[in-house]
Design goal:
Blueprint lengths: L2 H14 L3 E5 L4 H13 L3 E3 L11 H8 L4 E4 L7 H6 L1 H22 L3 E5 L28 H21 L3 E6 L1 E3 L12 H15 L3 E5 L5 E2 L1 E3 H14 L6 E3 L5 E2 H12 L4 E5 L14 H7 L7 H19 L4
Parallel strand pairs: 1-2, 1-3, 3-4, 4-5, 5-10, 6-9, 7-12
Antiparallel strand pairs: 8-11
Helix pairs in contact: 2-8, 3-5, 5-6, 7-9, 7-11, 9-11
Length: 328
Amino acid sequence: MNRGERNISIENEKFWQGKRVLVTGGSGFVGQHLVEQIKEKQPRKLFVPTHDGYDLRQREACEEVVQGRDLVIHLAANVGGIGYNQKYPGELFYDNLMMGALLMEEARKTGVKKFVAIGTVCAYPRDTEVPFKEEDLWKGYPEETNAPYGLAKKMQLVQAQAYRQQYSFNAIFLLPVNLYGPGDKFDPEQSHVIPALIKKAVEAREEGKDHIDVWGSGTATREFLYVEDCAEAILLAAEKYEKPDPVNIGSGMEISIKDLVELIKELVGYQGKIVWDKTKPDGQPRRCLDTLRAEKEFGFKAKTDFKKGLRETIDWYLEEKNQAGKFK
């Protein structure tokens, strides 16, 4: 570590000294990794409310959890893949809108010093030119299959900017791309594309199936970010970013679903065929973020090689499956 890097590290550690931190959604996929990284910073207090204990769609719960906090990181969300979005659009819109709006309002009222709102790549218009730039956010309507979720999360950006303008409330808004990694959801109804494909390939291999069915045509592309990298980006933004403009959080890579399936097959060791169900939606045609703002503003650049991250995700899933039978 050179002298400049050491000085940055010291400054970052000072940020957390004496901080009373709230992380909503701390037991979720990203939250588990983020909470562990925050613990290493040794803040004064770290509060991670449970879903069962606090319903953040209720004002009273939001009012309670923000009391005495300096920093709020709002990760809690009702979220799932394309099928889940198609089945529960109303719930996804209402739950995410209410949680975001009520929590930020109560945080403002109680004097929270900084609020980090976590949005979603689903907020971008369907036909955004690749790579997605933050200024493209309002150039059209989101892809229809996940528009209610994407728009509900996008309202946190509107609220953050309005509160900064009227109340000088220090709220920032981050836009993570599709995430993957150990601890992801492998539930068939709620899982996103990578855990869904891993589960299908592993089960097909174990059961000797000659093919697996995959939604869509395989032509759509996606960008993926390893969950540990995302957690690091959120911490860096909490420490260093103070502006109203939204910030993309991603890796800058792009891969077609077809190539993704082939890579997962290779890593899992599945030799069967892929049958594409073209009656099912592809979702947004392409997704890949411009990540220059995050690097410029708070020094974030993704570190994890995609193939290595996939292998670690598969290994975690197999270990959990074999030990506990959680995902059978």
